[in-house]
Amino acid sequence: MTDTLVESSAESAFLDLHKKLPGQSDSPLAEFRQAALNRFETLGFPHSKHEMYTYSSTKGMVETAFSVSDGSGKVSEEFVAGHIYPGCESQCLVFVDGVLNRDLSRLEGVSTHLVPLSEALSDQELKTYLSETIENENDVFASLSSAFCAEGLVFKVGDNTQVSETVQVLFVSTGGSPVMHTPRLVWQLGKLAEVKVIEKFVGTEGGYFVNTVQDWLLAEGAGVSFTQIQADPFDSWHFSKTRICLDRNSRFHSTNASSGTQLARHHYDVRLQGEGSELRLNGVSVLDGKEQVHNFIRIHHEAPQCVSHQHFKNIVNGQARSSFDGTVIVNQGAQLTSSNQLINNLMLSNDCHAYNKPNLMIFADDVKCTHGATIGQIDKEQWFYLQTRGLSAKAAKELLTRSFAKSIIQTIEFPEVVTELNGTLLKKLEARNG
Question: I want to staple 293 with a disulfide (CB 3.0 to 4.6 A). Which of 99, 116, 164, 258 is the partner?
C-alpha cells in the first residue's frame, strides 16, 4: 500500500470517528470543532516529505485505528499521589484521559482562576483569538486535537496577581488500547501577573495517543516559569502544540525533559509581540532502544529589543532518534533583537540518529543572532583521564554522560523536579554504560 493511500485511509478513519462523537451540535465549542475539522481536512495527513515531519515518520500512527475515550478510565489516588511533587499537593490539576478530574485534583488557592473553555468564550477577545488560531493552524495534529476537544480549561491570572505556590498539572492516560486523548488548556496572564507551573505526562498503560494543545497569553510585564516532563510509556504516542504570545516586557522561561516514546513530538510556536519581551526555551532528552523525541520550533521576533534563548541537549543510545528543527524569524522593525540557538547531541551507539536543522531568517539590520549544533561521542581523552584518577570505565562514562544532561536539568528552578529527573531520566544511562 502506498503512503498516499495510507494517509487517505487515516484521514477517512478520523473523519468517521468524529461523526460518532456525542453532543456535537449543541456544544458551545461546536463551531470551533467544526472549523478545526475543516482545517484538518485541508491540511491532510503529512506525507514522508512534509516540511514539518522531515525527521519523524507518522506511518505507524496513521496505520493505527484509534478510538476516543468514553471517560470511564480509572486512576487510583495512590497513583496520582506518586506523581505529585512536594509543595504542589494543594494546587494540582489532574486530567484523566484528557478530561479534568475534580475528585483527584486539589484546587485550594487556584479554583478562582479556573474557567471551562466553553464559558470563557464569553470573552470576545479570547473567542476571536481561538477562531484565528484554528483557521490558520499549520499543524494537522493540532487541528485534529481541536476537532475532538469536548471541553477545555482556561487558567486566568488577573492583573498584578502572583500565584504564590507552584501549580502542577498532571496528565494521566489509562491506555490499554489505541485511544486518543485531546487535553486543551489556555493560560491567560494579566499585566504583571506571575505563575509557576509544572506539567507531567504519565500513563498507567501504553497504547494511547495524547495529543494536546496549549496557549500561553501573557500581557505586559507578566512572567511564567514552566517545566514539562514527558514520561509516557514507550508504546504510546505523545504530540503537543504550545503557542506562546508575549506582550511588552513579559517573559516566559521553560524547560522540557523528555524520556521518549515510539513517537514524541513537541511543537512550539512563539511570538514576541511586545517590545522587551523575553523567551528562554531549554530541552533535554535521554533516549534508548527505539525511543524518539522530535522538536519543531518557530520563534517570531515581531517587536524591538526582544530576547530569545534556546538550548537543547539530547543523549541518544541504541536505535533511538532525536531531531531539532528550529527557525528564528526576525521581522522588519524588530531592531536590537538578541537571539541564540544551540543544539548539542551526545551519541552513544552506532545505530542511533540525531538530526539538526537550526535556521535564522533575519529581515532587520541591527540584531545579534547566533545558532549552532554539535554531534559527538564521549570525549575519549576525558574518559581516559577519569580512569587514571581511579574511576572504572563504566563509572567514568556514566559521569560524563550525566554531566552532559545535567547542565540543562539544573536550569529547572524546582528542586523536587531536578531530584526526580536525576533519579529517573538519568537512570536510563546506567543500564547501557559499560
Answer: 258
